[in-house]
Design goal:
The chain is α+β, with helices and mostly antiparallel strands. The chain is built from four helices and two strands; from the N terminus they run H-H-E-E-H-H. Strands 1-2 form a two-stranded antiparallel ribbon. A hairpin with a 2-residue loop joins strand 1 and strand 2.
Length: 158
């Protein structure tokens, strides 16, 4: 589903930029470019759910577990836990971050994505702005839900 939503966001952006509309700049005061309370609410919703995802990602990064392997003796599987070999307990699903990103990569990438999302939302006229916000809120809610199901909870820690 995530891949489909990312493709949908890309298609939306391409369609918006090739349909002949003008980007919303400070000099463009058209009705389609006015920023409404609904736009603010949607952007706050995106930023909030992304902050939750960011926090979950950092907690997942910091959680380690012992390496568990399966060894076969005479065709019978035996699970062995190597307590002196710790590995990350979670793998990241965001393709921009990679499977086991560093804390710095997590922080820089997500902060840049939050700033970039707000900037693009401000530049897009209606109705593209609402589509942009809705698609990425859906992606982030999906990521947070996945993280909760993986055991990372739904709380902020600082």
């Amino acid at each position: 589903m995530l891949k489909r939503l990312v493709v949908a966001a890309f298609v939306l952006l391409v369609a918006a930029t090739t349909s002949g509309f003008t980007l919303c700049t400070p000099k463009n005061n058209s009705k389609e470019c006015s920023w409404t309370k609904t736009d603010t609410a949607l952007e706050v919703a995106f930023q909030g759910v992304t902050l939750l995802d960011w926090n979950q990602t950092l907690r997942g990064h910091d959680t380690m577990k012992p390496l568990t392997t399966t060894v076969y003796y005479n065709g019978v599987p035996h699970t062995t836990t190597l307590w002196n070999t710790m590995v990350p307990a979670y793998e990241e699903n965001n393709p921009l971050l990679g499977r086991h990103p560093s804390r710095a990569r997590i922080n820089v990438t997500i902060a840049a994505a939050m700033i970039g999302h707000a900037a693009v939302a401000r530049l897009l006229p209606q109705p593209y702005r609402r589509y942009w916000q809705a698609v990425f809120i859906t992606i982030e809610v999906g990521a947070v839900t996945h993280n909760v199901r993986a055991g990372l909870g739904l709380h902020l820690t600082f």
